[in-house]
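Thread: "does anyone have the structure for this chain?"

Original post by V.I.:
We have the sequence but no experimental structure in hand. Need at least a predicted one for the grant figures.
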Amino acid sequence: MDETAVSWRLVAKVVLVTAATLLGLYLVYLVRSVIGLLLIAAFFALAVAPAVNWLDKRRVPRVAAVLLVYLSIAASIFGIGLLLVPPVVSGVNKISADLPSNISDLRKNDTFRKYDDRYHITPKLQQQIDQLPSKLGSAASTLQDVTVGVFSSFVKLFAILVITFFFLMEGGRMLGFLYAQMPKDRERRLRKIATDVSEAISGYVFGNFVISVLAGLMTYATLSVLNIPFAVPLAFLYAFLDLVPLVGATIGGILVGIVVAFFNFPTDLIIWAVVTIVYQQIENYLVQPYVYGRAVRVHPLIVIIAILIGASLLGILGALVAIPIAAAVQSIVLDWWQFRQEGAGRKPKPRAKPAAKRKPKPKTA
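Reply from O.Q.:
Generated one for you, tokens below.
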């Protein structure tokens, strides 16, 4: 009778726990977009926290420090836009006006004329040019959808900035409240893990920025030597795409190569292809592992494996967050291992004390 009652209680408990788990997962699925915004805001807060803390230590009020960092980021983006947009717009207008004559000039190149006769490249390009006005007209009809999409993205960006602001202002208090609910030993461990994760994310952002700057400088130097127009905008484009580990440089190289091919085919295109392929190999297997290894303090082999796994699971987003996640996992594993080692040495086996040797009694006659 008792065994039957216990078994039914166990079955009911398992059913209730399973139902509660499924319900919780379903609720998480329903609010997945909000959770995504929270994670992005937390990542952004950890990324800009060093700058805010640096200003805070210099007696700048916390609110003013956060606003100064926000304004600095906005000013940087606005300055880059002022630097890129005017030459890009004027260049695009010039290329659009000269496009028919440029296509005719391509026929003067013996190599291009050979492939053009075989694959009929020029007639296809001319057909696309003739259809350009109608395509622009149809594109205008989608302007409303694009506007709605931009407005939605702006609302999400505003929400992320507001949540990040509260994280930067109240994050210390929230963590302090969480630490206060734990035993001293667990609090010490959690503080160390949180510090390691914060330093890893900050180091990752700094390292990624340094690598992108190097990629942009390489692109600008190469295009300047080849005398290709739009060297500055193309360098910024390559640097921006290079923020995505492993695959970003490849995408940027292809886009820049298309522009290079329009001005000198195939000589400059071959030179650009060789330069970008060599640079990608150096960046992927030497620069990225070294910079990320020093900034994030993760072994270069783990960096490469983490990027490959993240890209295979979540694509570009997975590649972006793979390194901070790997650093966080490494910190947790190292803490667990150290805790086990300390636990093993906390109660050492008592060693038997050797018996004291007795001094021999002096012999008496």
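V.I.: this helps a lot. DSSP finds twelve helices and no strands in the chain.
O.Q.: and The chain has a mean pLDDT of 75.
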